[in-house]
Specification:
Distance between the termini: 26 Å
CATH class: Alpha Beta
Strand order of the largest sheet: 1-2-3-4-5
Mean pLDDT: 88
Helix content: 25-40%
């Protein structure tokens, strides 16, 4: 599955969850439901995959992204009324830390599903889309 198709598939699964549940649940509920939908469309994924964070070459801790899908895209979920810059920064950091070309930030807490496609600046020339990180 190509990167764009993978992204669309994940967003489609998230839309199904949001259309079914609507806003108002805790993030973990959306995470469990998204896992069900990802399984239904036969996508391979890991939930809460731990990743080591380095400062230069020194290990300084670990972080867990909500999903790593097809070992190609990192997905961070939120269940907040409005996405804020801190949420975007966290998701961007995961994309860079996991060394993936792109990732998704998905918010189930708003009236309509919100999502942001994120790009790793390291792969900017590859994707040709480096300025679309809003």
């Amino acid at each position: 599955m190509q990167k764009e198709n993978l992204t669309y598939a994940v967003i489609g699964c998230a839309m199904k969850v949001h259309n079914t549940l609507g806003p108002g649940f805790q993030e973990v509920i959306y995470q469990r439901c998204l896992a069900i939908e990802l399984e239904r469309v036969n996508l391979n994924f890991a939930r809460e995959q731990e990743h080591v964070i380095y400062y230069e070459t020194i290990e300084v801790g670990t972080r867990r992204a909500d999903f790593v899908i097809e070992n190609r895209i990192v997905v961070e979920l939120k269940a907040v009324v409005n996405l804020e810059d801190v949420h975007l920064a966290q998701a961007k950091n995961y994309v860079v830390a996991y060394d993936f070309p792109n990732g998704l930030l998905i918010n189930f807490g708003a009236r309509s599903l919100q999502y942001k496609l994120l790009f790793n600046p390291k792969y900017k020339s590859e994707a040709g889309l480096g300025n679309e990180q809003n």
